[in-house]
Write a structure and sequence with these properties.
Organism (chains A, B): Streptomyces coeruleorubidus
Pfam family, one (chains A, B): Vir_act_alpha_C
Structural class of chain A: mainly alpha
Oligomer: homodimer
Number of strands of chain A: 2
InterPro entries (chains A, B): Tscrpt_reg_PadR_C, Tscrpt_reg_PadR_N, WH-like_DNA-bd_sf, WH_DNA-bd_sf
Protein name (chains A, B): PadR family transcriptional regulator
Largest sheet of chain A: 2 strands, antiparallel
DNA sequence: TCCTCATATGCAACTCGTTGCATAGCCAAG
DNA sequence: CTTGGCTATGCAACGAGTTGCATATGAGGA
């Protein structure tokens, strides 16, 4: 159900089209909730038919027309209601960890490249987050003081930064372990 | 596709029934991959029909019969093949983060209890992981030296521990932010 | 005796999410 | 002038995951 709520939050922050939402889900919102454009278009249509959103068809010059969605009363109420409900803490879904345990039944060194690749992705994400933090929250161009919405966006971004740092450190640990096992006598 | 591979890993570590796998997915394997018993039974049946697993019907006294699954040749090959493929790094799914950003459009203090509840869950998980680490890997009752499989299980568990510690620290940050905003003048 | 709990397996219906494909307008480069 | 790229929206089919329900055995307690 959370895609619906992620869309409400994003559209309250700023109205936009399905295409624009899909872009936001590649940055910003997408740091902690992902969705493809097909999913977004489908849910937007449903939410509009349920009266949570309003559409405005905008003809643009030099571009195809778009439909701009914005949150209306019942949508705001739905979000508020959801905020008052409790959700259950995240359950893990870490495919790489499954692979690492699986490596016991093959040659552990086959995973070294894979783990290095993941490590690089997380390093890039961290750099991206840090640049965003500087631009929007802690740099000289950032507004001072931050309003409540910006403070909350910032604390979520700090979570992303902490997650990437933790992950990079862990992947270093994994690499050290795989390399150590690689030089030991084989097993199984 | 990863449920299939998580099952292969778990059954290679030790053969077992659907019920037993479901239990393992509540501990151990479940720390980084979750599944319900319905999902497990369905996939076991499919994997058996594809020749990845073998079944043995065991009649037990004082308990209903069970079907014990174990990995056979093609299953081992399938796992090995998967280990050589590359997967794409995890995409986040953090519902609480959506809520935190959404709190900008309601009273941020409504989230304080919710975040405190999540924090407690993570503290409990951390304690549980640390107890498991002591029991299986670092305590006096642990085998020395550890074999490759145990080393790999340990490094995965260290990842879980690092994740929980990071999350608890972040939730403290979130709580401090929510409390600070709660004492500021309202917004929106 | 009846109820509940733990073991053990499964179906049916549903929602959520992914993948591949299709369409269409306009721009810029070759 | 054709091709590729970006904006913009959408269908169809499939696969993954959840929820509710159903069934059966046997243990232990009220």
């Amino acid at each position: 159900m959370a895609l619906e709520h992620a869309i409400l939050v994003s559209l309250l922050e700023k109205p936009g089209s399905g295409y624009e939402l899909a872009r936001r889900f590649e940055r910003s919102i997408g740091y902690f909730w992902t969705a493809t454009h097909q999913q977004i278009y489908r849910v937007l249509k449903r939410m509009e038919s349920e009266g949570l959103l309003a559409v405005r068809e905008l003809s643009q010059q030099s571009r195809p027309d778009k439909k701009e969605y914005s949150v209306v009363g019942p949508g705001r109420t739905a979000l508020s209601q959801w905020l008052h409900e409790s959700i259950q803490p995240e359950s893990m879904r870490h495919e790489l960890a499954v692979k690492i345990r699986g490596a016991a039944f093959d040659d552990p060194s086959v995973l070294i490249r894979e783990v290095e690749r993941h490590r690089q992705v997380h390093i890039d994400r961290l750099a991206h987050y840090l640049a965003g933090e500087l631009r929007d929250f802690t740099g000289p161009a950032a507004p001072t003081p931050l309003d409540a919405g910006q403070e909350l966006q910032h604390v979520v971004l700090r979570g992303g930064i902490a997650y990437e740092r933790m992950t990079i450190a862990w992947l270093d640990d994994v690499l050290a372990t795989l390399r150590r096992l690689g030089t030991s006598p084989p097993h199984v």
